[in-house]
Specification:
5 helices; eight-stranded mixed β-sheet; alpha/beta; six-stranded mixed β-sheet; Purple Acid Phosphatase, chain A, domain 2
Amino acid sequence: MKILAIGDLVGESGLERLKKDLANLQEAENIDFTIVNGENVAGGMGMTTKAFNEINKLNVDVITMGNHTWGKKDIFSFINNSKIVRPANYSRGVPGHGYTIVEKNNKKIAVINLIGRTDMGVLSENPFTCMDDILKKIQADIIILDFHAEATAEKIAMGYYVDGRITAMFGTHTHVQTADEKVLEKGTGYITDIGMTGPKKSVIGMDVDISLKRFVTSLPERYKLAPGGCILNGVVFEINDENCRTKGIYRINL
């Protein structure tokens, strides 16, 4: 089985790039299952009903979220849809699901979403112990984790923490694809960050001039999405159908 994970959709232009290229990419790579991180798809923050419906029209199996889950009020009308998962370690009692299980190709595939606690500015429970709790509850052949976190150290630590207990983990949030894809020693596929699907000439998706002004002057200039063409970043995990371990991993950068 081959599983494709697409990096954070940034803005409506990122979604348009996904709509344009996803089907061809899935065919070319013989993809069986697709995960897309959509937490930045609406103007760079959150998800609207329109964006959710457009992603739903594509061959996408699961949509993961992150620190901007609640960025648009629309989210409350569809957050309980089984196709979308928000960080499982958000405060208890919030709507939505922290993981979902989808049956595909005679395999039960669990997709878990967690958020980091280092420099994220979000109050959340411990992602490591939350992961333990989830793994005690679920029964699935393949388990995939989207760890939405800022610190590379926290992501790397999580990779070692889950090695051998899940099939694969990929990081999101920083919007810059890392070159450290690997299969860890106990069989878990890992990459620190899969990058973004959004404006190529940008500062992680935002307008270059405005971003420079913020950094140079420290003035609270309002961010806006960068114009122009978009890149598409992601990763493919090749899964051994017999033992459900990752046997290969490679990045997608279009």
